[in-house]
């Protein structure tokens, strides 16, 4: 069901997961639901987060909790109908959707499948996870860092945890976009990329985006402070709650589609022979039905930052 990197102007939309798709931190949600909050807090005193959640899963397994128990917790994690609507609507408009998350493949996959959303995403970059032969859920770092032979991700931004630099992943995604755009005849620039996130780890990928791209930080959450201190080159469009997330995202998507339609029409006129006689045929441009959202989506907006 994943959309191809075709024309039409629909952007690539990359979602963070915790507090962006689900309205909770999925690690904390599972740990709390299984009654291990205090122990997890203890583990975090001396382990990096990604290592601590793996250790926590090991202790829960030793105490008789199964991977199915974890799955049951994840099915109960809160996910707004507005997120589901935004995913379905942006995909229907031709967007390709991806997840870029510091949770893990087991948690992300379980939640998306439970809500019938998995097929709308073309890919997920997150910490790998598997159930071992003993039935224990194992969670590994996306970028190996504990082994002295492992290079780690090499990013020096303090907002990137040791196990995952989302900025490094975003650079790879953008490189793939550039290559695909260069290979497609008639494409002058890669499609726009929209990134939605809330946490400190979402700052680095935001800074990799350029002019013509969009960052959608969750209002009042840590990524907003970082963006306010040193903004990205991409346009910043905050969202405040999930109804707003749906509205802002679809506004951007419709704006990009309308912009591409206008550009394609202008290009067609030039190819039609200099247009010495014909005036610009703006009225002939077919705009999508929701392009009334375009003006707001195209105008730069000030970043509102909580104190
Ligand atoms: Mg998050």
Automatic annotation (TrEMBL):
Domain of life according to the entry: Eukaryota
Task: Tell me the leader sequence span.
Answer: none
Spell out the catalytic residues. 16 (nucleophile), 18 (proton donor)
Keyword annotations of the record: Hydrolase, Magnesium, Metal-binding
List residues binding substrate. 27, 102
* Amino-acid positions noted as binding Mg(2+) in the UniProt annotation, renumbered to this chain: 16, 18, 198
- Which prosthetic group or cofactor does it need? Mg(2+)
- InterPro entries in the cross-refs: HAD-like_sf (IPR036412), HAD_hydro_PyrdxlP_Pase-like (IPR006384), HAD_sf (IPR023214), Pase_PHOSPHO-typ (IPR016965)
Any one GO molecular function term: hydrolase activity
- This one is known as Uncharacterized protein
State the organism named in the record: Urochloa decumbens
């Amino acid at each position: 069901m994943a959309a191809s990197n075709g024309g039409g102007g629909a952007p690539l939309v990359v979602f963070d997961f915790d507090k962006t798709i689900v309205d909770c931190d999925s690690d904390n949600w599972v740990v709390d639901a299984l009654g291990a909050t205090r122990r997890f807090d203890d583990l975090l005193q001396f382990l990096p987060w990604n290592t601590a959640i793996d250790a926590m899963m090991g202790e829960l397994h030793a105490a008789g909790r199964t991977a199915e128990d974890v799955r049951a917790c994840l099915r109960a994690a809160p996910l707004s109908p507005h997120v589901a609507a935004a995913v379905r609507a942006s995909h229907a408009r031709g967007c390709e959707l991806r997840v870029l998350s510091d949770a893990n493949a087991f948690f992300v996959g379980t939640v998306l499948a439970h809500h019938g959303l998995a097929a709308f995403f073309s890919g997920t970059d997150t910490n790998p996870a598997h159930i071992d032969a003993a039935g224990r859920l194992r969670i590994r770092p996306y970028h190996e860092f504990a082994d002295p032979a492992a290079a780690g991700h090499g990013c020096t931004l303090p907002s990137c945890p040791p196990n995952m630099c989302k900025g490094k992943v975003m650079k790879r995604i953008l490189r793939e976009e550039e290559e695909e755009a260069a290979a497609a005849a008639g494409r002058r620039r890669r499609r726009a990329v929209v990134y939605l996130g809330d946490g400190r780890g979402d700052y680095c990928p935001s800074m990799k985006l350029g002019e013509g791209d969009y960052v959608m930080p969750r209002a009042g959450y840590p990524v907003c402070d970082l963006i306010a201190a040193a903004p990205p080159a991409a346009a910043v469009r905050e969202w405040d709650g999930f109804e707003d997330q749906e509205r802002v995202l679809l506004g951007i998507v419709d704006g990009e589609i309308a912009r591409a339609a206008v550009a394609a029409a202008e290009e067609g006129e030039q190819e039609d022979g200099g247009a010495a006689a014909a005036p610009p045929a703006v009225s002939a441009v077919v705009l999508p039905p929701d392009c009334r959202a375009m003006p707001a989506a195209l105008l730069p907006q000030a970043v509102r930052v909580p104190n």
